[in-house]
Inverse folding.
């Protein structure tokens, strides 16, 4: 079998968040496979940004897999922020990889670029189940060595994963991960421990100034009837502070072709977090060839939120399908999605999807044609009304079996964005050990560097979201779910910046002297509603007996603050007062006061 693919992509977007500029990307991808006695792959990609006026990224890759399971590969260009050369080989029981190059640090600004100022080398060895690696990173004024070993011990149904890393930067540091689990057809038990000592430094040159620990255990048992029960508990936190605790329990039921459900209840608190809960219910109702899904979630963790959704897949015929989705979220409003597939002729197929969310429309359409000799041509257009961006794709493929497999991917960072610029700066810590969910099916955890990765993703539309139940109470994010389109070879980069939550506080007082400021002898007004609003998000509270109020857990942005439900006969002083504030990550703004007073009587002048 012989296959050759070439694709052309043009992407144009007008960015207007802080700086207004036109961004254009030109991408050419080529890839080939020949399956006879040997299998080889050649993969190359060229990116060209007009606004950068030059070459941005280039990768050349050669792989060879022989019948006797020997594997050789060569990669030159950009690979995981390292620009250089990677060579390696793998046989049965032994493998090695050597990468040498310069680490690329992102330089923030209106036109982000990369600075190759760090020499980087890494040697990976795979020997009898052990995966060793030795990394060296030469900084401008220091050298960082990092040594690690990972191996899995198995005995019957019992497995133990060991992962240990040792670093030295000014002082020694250690990172340890132990994962013990027992698995049978109807029983699953697991316990894990993650520990970072103070002084440990990872591959991203992020130093852990304080030690931390994370421990958890969970269990699940399935009855022959299809009903399952699951439970768990755990804690995490800094070693020199109070720990945070989590307890969970739930029920699920699954039988092929029948109604199935999954109910989970979490309880989290301790440390600096108030105790809160998260309840989640998912109901799947099959009907002939159709599928109906009902989702409900309610949570008081971080902030009160509630969502309810309905989804349906309707197979109208063997050549047509209709997808509908309605979701109502307390924080973001309605999310409506409409799409489907139609094949009016045997050689022609169309796919489309439209999504309306937060007053924005996202669309993705494609047209596929299968011609003579299994040649496939595809043309697609995607875009959204938020950034007025459009993406055009043209692909020509030989062989129709490749579409059953996926060799694309998606990766990104989850970190605490301390300055709110949505670009990870040096010193901004990653947010680890929380789950990222792809298409509601695949899950992965953010690693110690704050990075997640999904491999082998089929071409098409996908959704990815962050499971915010693992985010600490003092942190939050704007959007937990994003949509993207993946091609055969595309590696999408989707980041989730996490912000330190902010708060505002002030008082509502009786402005007796109409001087528009609070004086110590002026009393507070209780039970006044104070509301903060940004876009479609709104949050409110009521003043206490002394007239003071506090609203916390706010993400960065520009808010309006208003006061309403005043005592009878009173109005704001001045009338119709609206406050505008800009919150940066982790700020606490005080003194946002509202005065109320009786309306001034108009003086009538009479002439005699």
């Amino acid at each position: 079998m012989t296959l050759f693919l070439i694709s052309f992509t043009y992407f144009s977007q007008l960015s207007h968040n802080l700086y207004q500029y036109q961004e254009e990307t030109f991408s050419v991808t080529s890839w080939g496979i020949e399956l006879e006695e040997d299998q080889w792959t050649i993969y190359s990609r060229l990116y060209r940004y007009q606004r950068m006026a030059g070459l941005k990224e280039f990768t050349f890759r050669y792989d060879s897999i022989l019948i006797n399971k020997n594997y050789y590969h060569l990669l030159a260009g950009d690979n995981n922020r390292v620009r250089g050369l990677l060579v390696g080989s793998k046989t049965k029981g032994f493998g090695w990889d050597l990468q040498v190059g310069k680490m690329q640090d992102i330089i923030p600004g209106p036109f982000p670029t990369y600075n190759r100022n760090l020499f980087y080398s890494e040697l990976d060895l795979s020997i009898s189940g052990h995966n060793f690696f030795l990394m060296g990173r030469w900084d401008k004024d220091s050298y960082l060595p990092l040594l690690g070993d990972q191996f899995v011990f198995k005995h019957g149904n019992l497995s133990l994963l060991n992962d240990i890393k040792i670093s030295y930067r000014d002082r020694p540091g250690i990172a340890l991960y132990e994962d013990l689990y027992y698995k049978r057809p109807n029983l699953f038990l697991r316990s894990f421990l993650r520990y970072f000592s103070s002084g440990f430094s990872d591959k991203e040159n992020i130093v852990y100034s304080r030690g931390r620990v994370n421990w958890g255990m969970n269990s699940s048992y399935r009855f022959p009837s299809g009903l399952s029960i699951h439970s768990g508990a755990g804690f995490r936190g800094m070693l020199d502070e109070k720990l945070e605790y989590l307890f969970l329990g739930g029920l699920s039921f699954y039988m092929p072709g029948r109604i199935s459900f999954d109910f989970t209840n979490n309880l989290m608190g301790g440390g600096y977090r108030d105790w809160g809960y998260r309840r989640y219910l998912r109901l799947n109702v099959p009907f002939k060839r159709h599928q109906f899904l009902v989702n409900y979630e309610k949570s008081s963790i971080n902030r009160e939120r509630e969502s309810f959704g309905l989804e349906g897949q309707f197979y109208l015929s063997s050549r047509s399908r209709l997808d509908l989705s309605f979701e109502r979220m307390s924080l973001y409003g309605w999310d409506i999605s409409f799409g489907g597939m139609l094949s009016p002729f045997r050689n022609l197929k169309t796919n489309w999807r439209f999504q309306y969310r937060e007053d924005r429309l996202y669309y993705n359409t494609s047209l596929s044609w299968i011609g003579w000799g299994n040649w496939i041509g595809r043309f697609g257009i995607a875009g959204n009304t938020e950034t007025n961006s459009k993406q055009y794709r043209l692909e020509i493929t030989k062989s129709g079996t490749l579409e059953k497999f996926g060799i694309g991917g998606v990766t990104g960072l989850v970190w605490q964005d301390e300055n709110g610029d949505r670009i990870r700066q040096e010193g901004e810590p990653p947010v680890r050990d929380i789950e990222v969910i792809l298409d509601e099916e695949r899950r992965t955890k953010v690693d110690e560097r704050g990075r997640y990765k999904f491999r082998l993703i089929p071409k098409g539309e996908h959704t990815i979201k962050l499971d915010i139940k693992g985010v600490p109470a003092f942190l939050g994010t704007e959007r937990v779910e994003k949509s993207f389109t993946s091609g055969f070879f595309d590696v999408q980069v989707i980041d989730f910046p996490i912000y330190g939550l902010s708060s505002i506080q002030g008082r509502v007082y009786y402005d007796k002297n109409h001087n528009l400021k609070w004086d110590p002898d002026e009393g507070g007004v209780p039970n006044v509603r104070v509301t903060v609003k940004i876009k479609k998000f709104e949050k409110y509270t009521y003043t206490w007996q002394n007239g003071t109020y506090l609203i916390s857990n706010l993400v960065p942005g520009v808010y309006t603050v208003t006061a309403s439900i005043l005592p009878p006969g009173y109005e704001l002083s001045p009338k119709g007062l609206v406050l505008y504030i800009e919150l940066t990550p982790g700020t606490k703004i005080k003194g946002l006061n509202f005065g109320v007073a009786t309306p001034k009587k108009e003086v009538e002048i009479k002439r005699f």
In short: The mean pLDDT is 79. The radius of gyration is 28 Å. The domain at 407-500 is CATH 2.60.40.10 (Immunoglobulin-like). The chain is about 0% helix and 65% strand.
